[in-house]
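SEQUENCE AND FOLD
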Amino acid sequence: VLSIGLLFTVFLFFLSETIVPITINKANTIWLKEVKKKSAVISREKNIWIKGNRSILNIKYYNPTNKTVSGITLYYFDKDFTLMRRVDAEDGFYKNKRWVFHEVMEQIRDKETGNYQVILHEQKVEKLDLLPDDLKRVIKKSEEMNFKELYLYIKNIESEGYDATIYRVDLNAKIAFPFVCIIMCLIATGISIKIKKGRTLSICITYGIGIIFLYWILYSFCLSLGYGGILPPIIASWMANLIFLCFGGLTLLNAE
């Protein structure tokens, strides 16, 4: 039974490293271009470029945990594609259907002279056809990268001073989650030994569904604590596994 669990663990890790990143990336691209009718390009260096109606938006980094953006540049053009206005901001957040930017430098082109007037703002509100949920789909997510890519991505983000906590949690989770197959096989073995003959199938199915449901709730809860910085990434990713591994061991020890 444990050999089967180990086999499924390897298979699940293989899926997360090969097939899953490709399919999720394509699904998000289809949603953005076909459903939202937006054009977006994301480089491996995490820069996000979004093309709108006579405008281009560049965001250096988006933090999905607190829904903030950093390193924002907005370009506005006329019908001849002449740059009429440029807005640079250090960071910003979404509030009341508008984006609020801080430490803003605005450049406006004079139509007569062609010169640009520079205006500085401590805070400026911009109404953009862009929601935090759109950015959440646009950014390069952990599921779209294999282990090596995610590790290098984290190093890149942290080298520029951005918070990579959520990605560190996901990096540890990429290793931790596949081991659920071995843990569930261990628990299933202990339960099947304890259950009397004649009721094995129905009760095993009931126990199995219940245990998987409880595991997923605990696993998701621990990850959310890690995303919020309450638990260290490695503990947040492995805590559910350790708890259920102990439960599986006790189940086997108490089996008759």
In short: The CA atoms of residues 65 and 227 lie 7 Å apart.
